[in-house]
Specification:
Number of helices: 12
Pfam families: Metallophos (PF00149)
Distance between the termini: 119 Å
Shape: elongated
Protein name: Calcineurin-like phosphoesterase domain-containing protein
Keywords: Hydrolase, Membrane, Metal-binding, Transmembrane, Transmembrane helix
InterPro entries: Calcineurin-like_PHP (IPR004843), Metallo-depent_PP-like (IPR029052), Metallophosphoesterase_sf (IPR051158)
Mean pLDDT: 74
Largest sheet: 8 strands, mixed
Strand content: 15-25%
Strand order of the largest sheet: 10-9-8-7-17-18-19-20
GO molecular function: metal ion binding; UDP-2,3-diacylglucosamine hydrolase activity
CATH class of the largest domain: Alpha Beta
CATH architecture of the largest domain: 4-Layer Sandwich
Radius of gyration: 33 Å
Length: 526
């Protein structure tokens, strides 16, 4: 009726027709899917970031300090990290989250409490179960907070709308609860019977027996584990009260250790001896590791904090990678190929073991290769003497290599055989063989009786740089907590003996196989 009034409506209809073209009709249908995918991506990324930032829970489990963490995973399961030995994985559940448990360290205070109150060992299993239950509950609560907070914060940063951010947080909480429910529904307690080992623990079945037998005899293993914790703590106490000797202040004190074989208790013992005996230099005649893998390298880090220079030669359980790692540590002096170094007033030269046999195999020609290595070391010692810089102490891992330097140096140190010995060889060189300062490491539980932990303090005159005396130190191995120190003197230093010349060459004197006279053991604390 009124064309002028109707004209705007027609324009509006044409304008709407242009907006609703076929391409435009498809756009609104695709936008919900795009938004949903974007929201899911924001939720997953925010939840993951939240778990990374605040998802860790430090939980004391018995005398151990552990860290529990939830991590996103396609397969689920539980991973237990035991640094530096490796890890083991359990197919404990099927869910998009994995439980990581890191065993950090032994707490000395709680371990000491077990020693002081042995009656608590009977309830150790129940205490561990309560600790794990409490830690899991704490982890679940903290993970919920971390997931919701992370997703909400990321949603607010991306969408800048509180409603969208709250939706992201709610969806993250829903996903976590669903994952927890799935894990609970698929929980498999029998997964402990079939763990998967990695790192050094890959040889665990051969070291500790079949996993099923461990579960079958769980009570026995539980008691042994509690006894191990008790004895390690007592061992620490024994080293802290060892009797100390105060020779002339100018005397050079050398701590000889060997064959630690990855025993972490050895570092505590060495540090204690360095402090009490005012040690000037530590000499390690090899086999510090057990398999020589890169995973073990972190075990060497305490060398930097022992309080004295650390002179080291490679053993047959130490790889070239072990040697390269140790060369990069502060305080470490690696000897190889007969090269000489002056440390703390004494000149040392040594050679690494020519063989790498972490599986304890003995290939053909092993003895010949040791003799050849010893001959190379002897040649290097002759070159040093000809150059006017004679060596005071030579170091090799195996005694068969060390015997080849007889007549070229006053003293040669070795290890390998896990028992102490001392002898003056045919041409006057004194051979000192150290026992295992690690109590044979992981092999301590193989025999009927545990190997003792052994080390020696060697006393040198600063002017002549000759051996004046040595103390043999022996600590009881696993299950034993005794400590004994015995003083020994070379024949020429015994009362009434004719003093030996002060030159740098070896002395031809000795007292039979050992070349020493013990002054009797000095018992430490029982």
């Amino acid at each position: 009726m009124n064309p002028i009034r109707n004209a705007p409506r027609a324009l509006i209809r044409r304008h709407r027709a242009r907006r609703t073209s076929p391409a435009a009709e498809l756009a609104p249908r695709s936008r919900p899917w795009t938004r949903a995918v974007g929201l899911v991506a924001v939720v997953l990324l925010g939840a993951w970031l939240g778990l990374l930032i605040v998802g860790d829970v430090r939980v004391p489990v018995g005398p151990m300090n552990t860290t529990m963490t939830l991590r996103p995973s396609l397969t689920g399961g539980t991973k237990i990290n035991v640094s530096p030995l490796g890890a083991l994985q359990l197919d404990s559940h099927v869910a998009p989250v994995r439980l990581d448990v890191n065993v950090d360290q032994l707490d000395p205070g709680r371990a000491q409490t077990l020693v002081d109150h042995p009656e608590r060992l009977s309830g150790l299993q129940d205490e561990v179960a309560r600790d794990v239950e409490h830690g899991t509950l704490d982890l679940a609560v903290r993970s919920c907070v971390a997931v919701v907070t992370g997703a909400t914060a990321l949603g607010l940063a991306v969408y800048r709308r509180p409603r969208r951010a709250l939706a992201a947080g709610g969806l993250a909480l829903t996903l976590l609860v669903a994952s927890g429910g799935t894990a609970y529904a698929t929980w498999n307690p029998d997964s402990v019977l079939e763990p998967k080992f990695s790192g050094l623990l890959s040889s665990a079945p051969s070291l500790v027996g079949n996993a099923r037998s461990i579960v079958t005899e769980f009570d026995v293993y539980q008691k042994e584990l509690a006894r191990l914790v008790t004895n390690v703590t007592k061992l620490y106490d024994a080293t802290s009260t060892l009797p100390a000797y105060q020779p002339d202040p100018t005397t050079i004190r050398v701590l000889h250790v060997s064959d630690i074989h990855l025993n972490p208790a050895s570092w505590k013992i060495i540090a204690s001896l360095v402090e009490q005996y005012k040690v000037n230099v530590i000499v390690d005649s090899g086999d510090t590791m057990d398999h020589g893998t890169a995973a073990e390298n972190g075990f060497l880090d305490p060398v930097e904090d022992l309080g004295a220079p650390y002179v080291w030669v490679r053993g047959n359980h130490d790889s070239r990678a072990t040697q390269e790692y140790l060369e990069g540590l502060r305080n470490a002096h690696v000897l190889d190929d007969g090269r000489a170094r002056t440390v703390a007033g004494l000149r040392f030269a040594g050679i690494g073991d020519p063989q790498f046999t972490p599986d304890r195999s003995k290939p053909e020609g092993a003895e010949a290769s040791q003799e050849l290595a010893g001959a190379r070391l002897a040649s290097a010692l002759r070159d040093q003497s000809a150059a006017g810089t004679p060596v005071d102490v030579a170091v090799a891992h195996e005694p068969s290599a060390a015997r080849e330097v007889d007549g070229e140096v006053p003293l040669v140190l070795a290890g390998h055989v896990h028992r102490e010995d001392m002898e003056v060889m045919k041409y006057g060189t004194r051979l000192r063989i150290e026992g295992s300062t690690g109590g044979s490491g992981l092999r301590a539980v193989e025999g009927e009786h545990p190997d003792p932990i052994q080390a020696s303090i060697l006393y040198f005159d600063r002017d002549s740089r000759r051996l004046q005396a040595w103390d043999e130190i022996q600590l009881g191995g696993l299950g034993l907590t005794t400590a004994e120190v015995s003083r020994h003197l070379p024949k020429e230093n015994q009362p009434g003996a004719t003093p030996s010349p002060t030159g740098t060459g070896p002395s031809p004197t000795g007292t039979g196989p050992s070349g020493a006279a013990p002054s009797g053991p000095t018992p430490g604390p029982p």
